[in-house]
Write a structure and sequence with these properties.
Number of strands: 5
Helix content: 25-40%
Radius of gyration: 32 Å
Number of domains: 2
Oligomer: single chain
Strand order of the largest sheet: 1-3-4-5-2
Largest sheet: 5 strands, mixed
Number of helices: 3
Length: about 140
């Protein structure tokens, strides 16, 4: 009888050690996930612990986009058009000035529809051109 009690005592100690090791491993995994996890991480058990990585950024972190013509310059307009899928190329014909002038939003809609935007240098400033159904549309800052 004594041997049985001694052996079950060792099993009890071993079971306790396994349980403690499992708890330490679980807490360690939580710690690691709080720093490197899929929900953003960066803080140890901070405010964003359960924030998914796909959650959009805070509203105040984004700068509002200015869509008025006064805020656009030629470089920003070219970058915006390229990010919308348009290809920019130099206008190879002679610029005669016989164009239809559009505001930026109207010009951008035509440019996205046609996908090819021409750049031309005029004495006043560089301009952007789009050819659509025989008409030449122009935008200048």
């Amino acid at each position: 009888m004594r041997k049985r009690g001694y052996r079950s005592g060792r099993v009890g100690v071993l079971a306790t050690l396994v349980l403690l090791f499992s708890i330490v491993l679980f807490v360690g995994c939580l710690f690691w996930l709080s720093v490197n996890g899929p929900w953003g991480g960066g803080q140890i058990f901070g405010d964003d612990l359960f924030k998914p990585a796909s959650m959009p950024a805070e509203q105040n972190e984004e700068a509002p986009r200015n869509t008025t013509d006064t805020g656009w310059n030629i470089t920003k307009a070219m970058d915006d058009l390229q990010s919308s899928g348009c290809v920019l190329t130099e206008y190879s014909s002679e610029y005669t000035g016989d164009t239809i002038q559009l505001d930026y939003e109207g010009f951008k809609a035509k440019a996205i529809k046609r996908k090819i935007v021409f750049t031309a240098d005029t004495p006043e400033s560089p301009i952007l051109l789009v050819s659509d159904t025989g008409n030449l549309y122009e935008w200048r800052p």
